[in-house]
Amino acid sequence: MRAVVAEIIGLFVDDGALAVGLLVWCAVVAGVRAVLPGLPLLAGGLLALGCVVILLVNIRRAAVSRPPSGRPSRGA
Asked: What is the pTM of this model?
């Protein structure tokens, strides 16, 4: 049963660091929104920009840590 639950969670959360980063960023933006309620566009812009940056960092980290497909890794 644990394997099934883990597989279902894995469908939605493949990379834990990405998921945690996005959740933390959403909390930060919610805090900004609470402090500055009159600036909803600022919060929306921060949310969008932060999510894009987190995604790009995650993609870069994944690309650096994996060898290109079709080529053996250096250790092989």
From this structure: 0.69
Q: Report CA-CA distances (Å) from 2 to 5, 8, 62.
A: 5, 10, 27
Domain count, the chain: 1
Instruction: Report yes or no on 71 lying in a domain.
Output: no
Q: Which stretch of DSSP H or E encloses residue 24?
A: helix 16-35
User: In this structure, is the dihedral angle defined by the CA atoms of residues 5, 6, 8 and 13, taken in order, positive or negative?
Assistant: positive
Q: For the chain, 76 residues long, give each residue's pLDDT as a single digit of tens.
A: 899 988 887 776 677 888 889 999 999 999 999 999 999 999 999 999 999 999 999 888 888 877 666 666 565 5
